[in-house]
Design goal:
- The protein is built from 13 helices and 14 strands.
- The protein is an alpha/beta fold and 394 residues long.
- The chain is globular.
- Helix 8 links the parallel strand 6 and strand 7.
- The protein has an eight-stranded mixed beta sheet, with helices on both faces. A four-stranded antiparallel beta sheet has the order 10-11-14-13, covered by helices on one side. Strands 1-12 form a two-stranded parallel ribbon.
- 47% of the residues are buried.
- Bound molecules: 4'-deoxy-4'-aminopyridoxal-5'-phosphate.
- 4'-deoxy-4'-aminopyridoxal-5'-phosphate binds next to loops.
- The site of 4'-deoxy-4'-aminopyridoxal-5'-phosphate has 14 residues, from loops.
- It comes from Methanogenium organophilum.
- Belongs to the class-I pyridoxal-phosphate-dependent aminotransferase family.
- Homodimer.
């Protein structure tokens, strides 16, 4: 009865990363493929204490149904952080708690996209977003990135010749390229989008993972209250708790709320209560600073090993935040071939192709540094360099 499936499910690909994660669960494999936060930096003891306190003090309520918007003190905590860090004028009513920030992409897709509608995406762009919007049978208008952010000439061309529902982007440590938009580019992008009345869906999954600790103003801050921001506790608290949020202007929030009600009534209330308790009882800023210190070290280990082992015609980024190094391979070496050969030697990397909405990117690779120790990073990169050499000489 397979002919009964919807067009949308038949036209959407499986997530390449989530498929690879199944392979890399094998402990013999050094995996640079996924994007897992380092488990040693998850404060399981602190979370255990917060969970015990919530269950003891208010267990019956915490285990009950709750509101669609989410736990008010948690929404207030997020709004206050926006006000303090970025000077945004938002309050708790502009915040809705989601099941990870991934769910925001689905909800915003539901609010804006009908079959065939276009979304402007970064090229390369986050493949989880491409998959999510594909569920609404979206089409893509990819805009390339330079070292300061989206290419504005190209964006202007796109805006003048096509009609997009919104633009999706990741201004801090973009996944996969690692690029952080400059302040000027943020401002210019905001004014270009406002002029054409195109909403910006701003994914800030890595805003707190900045090695210099600087809080950069979101693009939304320059959009006169019109931006839609998403955030995540996955990288600074726990990905398994699936806690994220969307911050949106009142009118958009009204629509998002309907989409959320229809999707799952509300996010896991016990998780929200545990998170709120954890934030009350712990110094999250000190915790985040500790994560950044560790990730910066790991990024440096990886890049300095690449400096030693890779030939000059392999290009790679020097991360200033986030969890990834982005490689461009020399002419004639395909990332798929490198992936297959490295996996045979128990090292997993991620070919860059699924990050390109319209195809391409055959010579690009994403490697994760957050979830490996120094020995694994050094041994793994040496194997990748070896395999690359073998491919070129074969
Ligand atoms: N956005 C980006 C850019 C991501 O990299 C990720 C996860 N890797 C997500 C959103 C989703 O994260 P979560 O649902 O855990 O918040």
């Amino acid at each position: 009865m397979n002919h009964r499936y919807s067009e949308r499910i038949c036209s959407t690909q499986k997530s390449f990363i989530r498929e690879i994660l199944k392979v890399t669960a094998n402990p013999e494999i050094i995996s640079f493929a996924g994007g897992l936060p380092n488990p040693n930096l998850i404060d399981d003891e602190g979370i255990q204490k917060a969970a015990a306190a919530v269950l003891k003090e208010d267990g019956k309520t915490a285990l009950q149904y709750s509101t669609t918007e989410g736990h008010p003190p948690l929404r207030e905590w997020i709004a206050e952080r926006y006000r303090i860090r970025y000077g945004l004028t938002v309050d708790a009513d502009n915040i809705l708690i989601t099941n990870g920030s991934q769910q925001c992409l689905d909800l915003v897709g539901k609010v804006y996209l009908d079959k065939g509608d276009a979304v402007i995406v970064e090229d390369p762009g986050y493949l989880g977003a491409i998959q999510s919007f594909s569920m609404f049978q979206a089409t893509y208008l990819p805009v390339p990135l330079d070292e300061e952010g989206p290419d504005l000439d190209c964006l202007t061309g796109v805006l003048e010749t096509s009609s997009a529902k919104f633009m999706y982007g990741i201004p801090n440590s973009q996944n996969p390229s690692g690029i952080t938009y400059s302040e000027n580019r943020r401002r210019d992008l905001a004014s270009e989008l406002c002029e054409h009345e195109i909403p910006f869906l701003e994914d800030d999954a890595y805003g707190e993972l900045q090695f210099d600790g600087v809080a950069r103003k979101p693009v939304s801050a320059y959009m006169d209250g019109e931006g839609i921001l998403t955030g995540s506790f996955s990288k600074i608290f726990s990905p398994g708790m699936r806690m994220g949020w969307v911050c949106a202007p009142d009118a958009v929030m009204e629509k998002i709320l309907i989409a959320k009600q229809a999707s799952d009534l509300h996010s896991n209330y016990l998780s929200q209560r545990i998170l709120a308790k954890y934030l009350e009882e712990n110094d999250i800023d000190a915790h985040i600073a500790g994560i950044n210190k560790e990730y910066r070290k790991r990024a440096e280990w990886m890049v300095s090993k690449m400096d030693k082992c890779f030939p000059d015609d392999v290009h790679y980024t020097r991360p200033t935040g986030g969890m990834f190094v982005w490689l461009t391979l020399p002419e004639g070496v395909s990332s798929g071939e490198l992936f297959e050969a490295a996996l045979k030697r128990n090292v997993a990397i991620l070919p860059g192709t699924p990050f390109y909405a319209d195809g391409g990117g055959n010579s690009t690779v994403r490697v994760n540094f957050s979830n490996s120790d120094k020995e694994e990073i050094e041994a793994g990169i040496e194997i990748v360099a070896d395999v690359l050499d073998e491919i070129r000489n074969s």
